[in-house]
Model the fold of this input.
Amino acid sequence: MTKAIIIVAGGSGTRMGSAIPKQFLMLAGKPILMQTIEVFFHFDKNIEIILVLPENQIGYWENLKREFEFDIPHKTTSGGAERFFSVKNGLSMVSEATEVIGIHDGVRPLVNQQTVSSCYEKAFEHGAAIPVIQIKDSIRKMREEGSKAVNRDDFCFVQTPQCFSKDVITKAYQQEFNKSFTDDASVAEAAGFHIQLTPGNTENIKITSPSDLIIAEQLLKIC
Amino acid sequence: MTKAIIIVAGGSGTRMGSAIPKQFLMLAGKPILMQTIEVFFHFDKNIEIILVLPENQIGYWENLKREFEFDIPHKTTSGGAERFFSVKNGLSMVSEATEVIGIHDGVRPLVNQQTVSSCYEKAFEHGAAIPVIQIKDSIRKMREEGSKAVNRDDFCFVQTPQCFSKDVITKAYQQEFNKSFTDDASVAEAAGFHIQLTPGNTENIKITSPSDLIIAEQLLKIC
Done:
């Protein structure tokens, strides 16, 4: 199977209370984004890596690469106003020969090899697959007339990479943008494709706050 | 307002891969359960603290108290086969004069004063209140015909303490036990009471796995 991974990093840094966008913050001595890219390179040395960054961060990234002597081959392109358009830009860079395309959050460096591998395999077989994990905490549904307890076993958390056959994801992203698209699976679903679920890993958190970064440092030590 | 807190600790330790039940594991130099009790004592020196432990752990707890010279006043009672029956046992120990009763997970030592205070206040006003936080990750609903993306903004995570006027929680716990009771709010809701929501704090995690314990250690440092 020939593979590509589109890594989307759109953070501006404001939620982190930091001037540096979250994807460039240091995790175990290296910018988060480099840690994330390494996971996919380690998974498959021949994977086509496409990085989507806000236009005004591309120069900063080039500097970081020099500073850290980061030499994993990848293409870089600029993002759009919404994640949907960033992914679309990434998709336009994928080579003709690629069979399965993954889309991954740049700030999820703790995804493990098992999660990545199962997701690509299942997408290769069925067209679309995403990693999910159980919800441990109680959840409630908010409604206009008040909230209501729901059974958490009826729900699951969605992680990335979300993987698709080239045909599926290309067709899905030909749709018009819709605010209800929460992730790539919801885009594919809206285009009529059925999504398979594969097991994610609990450490595969999205780093969006300073406490997430501290947690990630600790999780890296025990993973 | 006169208050009580029922702290329920039913863990047996198996999920932690440890012989020691999770509520007794060390967090910042002290058993988790002591950290949890201290939060409520700090909130109100006159709060009535009722601890519910599995029968066969009460002796161990007494030993720990001596070892750590733990002198916060509290009553201890034994738990039942289900959390529902443990809470019921705790409720039977609450003093006549108590107006608002909170019920809290023993393994949530990181609840902050603001969360606790808002919850008691709102329960005092409205009869029933629980702390909730936003869901950051994408979630899906699992159905027989396959899963489906749902809007995470329509859902929230539920934390503890869950607080109730004495009248509300007493009536609620007169119901027969039902497997659908996921927390105390769902018990009160089944009895026809309306639940108010108050803001929780993101650090208020339930410590149920070894990685949670590592995360909690780090969160304690920055809280």
